[in-house]
Amino acid sequence: MEYLYDKLVKYQEEDVYPMHMPGHKRNLELMNMINPYAIDITEIDGFDNLHDAEDILLENMEEAAQLYHATHTHYLINGSTSGLLVAIASCTNKGDTVLVARNCHKAVYHAIFLNELNPIYLYPEVDEELGIHRGIAPEQVKEAIEKNPNIKMVLLTSPTYEGIVSDIRAIAEIVHSYNIPLVVDEAHGAHLGFDKAFPENAVACGADLVIHSVHKTLPAFTQTALLHSNGDIVDYDKIRMYLQIYQTSSPSYVLMSGISNCLRLVKEQGAELFKEYNKNLETFYKASEGLQHIRVIQPKDYTRASGIYAMDPSKILIFTHGSSLNGVELYDMLRERYKIQCEMVSKDYVLAMTSIADTKEGFERLINALLDIDKKMIGQIKKQHVMLFSVIDATLVLTPYEAYNQRKERIAIENSVGRIAGEYVYLYPPGIPLIVPGEEITKESISKIQEYKMAGLHIKGMKDSNNEKILVVGEQ
Hints:
By secondary structure, this protein is α/β, with parallel strands linked by helices. It folds into 3 domains: 36-261, 3-Layer(aba) Sandwich (Aspartate Aminotransferase, domain 2), CATH 3.40.640.10; 274-375, Aspartate Aminotransferase, domain 1 (Alpha-Beta Complex); 400-473, Ornithine Decarboxylase, Chain A, domain 4. It has 14 helices and 22 strands.
């Protein structure tokens, strides 16, 4: 039998470079630490209690709030998932109507289920050329609120998994004019706002509640995150109560110390680290302009062209539209031939995640691999681009809670058109549902799932591991 610890030790000896989260990138020189067992404690005297912080943890969280310019900041040891559950529960009462972006993480849908909420979806614009989601336009939010005056909360994801940032400042002004709280899932944006080369963060743009995964884009342990609150639209006492409900009663002091160390690093060395980081990114993007068949999106060009959206340069998007490869083939090639593990793969692109912990050598390794792969493609026929990932505009017949509590049956997915979904179907990563319980299943959504399956992508959520049968609400 193989044990996980032994496999991890073996893996770290294989010289695979991590172009993926967590943001510490296993950079032991930057994030040096003693054996974690030596500092793994419980709530003993002198070390405070996360759920009733009044000493060192309170001071550390107050410093985090100052760093992000929030009114209050709380450590999250159950990841951004717990922050989303807390935020949504704090903003709503059971049965409320909420306005949420349809490209939200599955944790948002779990919160909708737990609180028996009635969701109204905002569908993000789609970049027709690249086949990725853009963001949510301010006009979309305003129109939806005016059509549905009973909305109690607005929740958006920004940046997206691919790094597209919505105009949160303009959206916040619209939402607040109706005295509605704005929650922003900024899990992929904990690094935003610390350098002018990156977009502003949602805290600075006026969102009421903002969730950051420090482990995704900053040097912190997996599972660590932050919940920021601003203003007085949301009852702060409710936030504190739900933090106790959705977080473990035995928070890890190792993980909390990781958050503290990470933010101390940003505070004390952030200017220097971001300067070097920007230099590495600029060098990489400049070198990528020499690619002939593979295409790396230039964030500055995309930001200028898209108008109301910005692109986070930390997310490197590598497209295969003009090559003989698809995304899965490029992803596998980078891992197997060049020992570079990227974060995510789709049919037509690969996503490499970077952070201030990446080394100059790491960036050079990626660009040299891409140039080498690209060079060997000379003379090969270009492929037609087929847009791959997008959420399907579906009709909500039942709330997710209602659908879950109905009698269900399992049928062949090709026979499910017009039926009401009884389970989630999503790609992981990024964990955005393609089908949500309570939605009417469409022919288009089934075609998408079958296309993803044929492309070799990971379809999750369905109880049938072969993804051939789907749970639907039983017919009366």
